[in-house]
Amino acid sequence: QLDLSNKTYVVMGVANKRSIAWGIAETLDQAGARLIFTYAGERFEKNVKDLVSELPSADKHLVLPCNVSSDEEIADTFAQIGEKVGVIHGIAHCIAFAEKAELEGEFLNATREGFLNAQNISAYSLTAVLKEARPLMTEGGSVITLTYLGGEKVVKNYNTMGVAKASLDASVRYLANDLGKENIRVNAISAGPIRTLSAKGVGGFNDVLQAMEDHAPLKRTVTQEEVGKSAFFLLSDLSSGVTGEILHVDGGYSTIG
Ligand code: 0WD
Q1: How do the domains of the chain map onto residue ranges?
Q2: From CA 231, how far away is CA 246, in angstroms rounded?
Q3: Is 148 labeled as catalytic in the residue annotation?
Q4: What is the pLDDT of residues 86-124, one digit of tens each?
Q5: Which of 66, 100, 168, 227 is the most exposed place for a label (fewest CB within 10 A)?
Q6: How far apart (Å, rounded) are the C-alpha atoms in residues 221 and 218?
Q7: Is 253 in the active site?
Q8: At a CB cut-off of 8 Å and minimum separation 6, what does 37 contact?
Q9: Does domain 8-249 bear CATH number 3.40.50.720?
Q10: pTM score of the predicted model
């Protein structure tokens, strides 16, 4: 069960070494899985290829572009995956975007365009990806996405992204219900705050980190590696009875009132 050497996973959303997706990729690589990395655009290509080349099993892995705002691009990427590897066993969807102006001040300042853009990239993309991935998951499988507490409760400055995460959380439940009959499970990890490229865009992020250290039961923040270990659980057979679930990997912070 701990050996993933006959499994193939698509890892979407590595921007750099600090990306949560990278923590997940390292854990899967160590377990022997074959990985297909997708990146948003040319800007990230070299970075992702260089990073992947450092992995112990680099030769097995593939790196492909996939901007999830385009249905054509998603279809093209998964067609290539189908040609190159055939069957896939899971996906780690670690993608989100909102303009900086949407991540500070009052939520009421949200613009129609900013709101819809966040929903598009951060929530709808999971469904769009699963439409194309489903035909390749003929042996069943497991899909995870990354969410945040700001989708369940009001978290200062998270605003438009919080509403997008609420939509993502609900999508997880509906997708889990649709795909359960094919033995495809869909779950989310609600990660505690981790300093990444995306996190830099959220106003007052240092205060959020400090609040974790002060109030989380574990009295500290969590690491990419810890998210990676929980992702391993959800992506492997260890969690074969779990679907439609939001697993908080946040040092217990969400349990504190
Ligand atoms: O504190 C944090 N960092 C938390 C992050 C706490 C809880 C949840 N999360 C979530 C984020 O909301 C996101 O869903 O984790 C996920 C990963 O975020 P991250 O690791 O914090 O941030 P980052 O390293 O910036 O990765 C975000 C990825 C980037 O990777 P690539 O290489 O694909 O560019 O999302 C990507 C972004 O570029 N992304 C897109 N990917 C494909 N198509 C798009 C797009 N249109 N837009 C953004």
Answers
A1: 8-249
A2: 12
A3: yes
A4: 999 999 999 999 999 999 999 999 999 999 999 999 999
A5: 100
A6: 8
A7: no
A8: 10, 11, 12, 14, 25, 48, 52, 61, 62, 63, 64
A9: yes
A10: 0.97
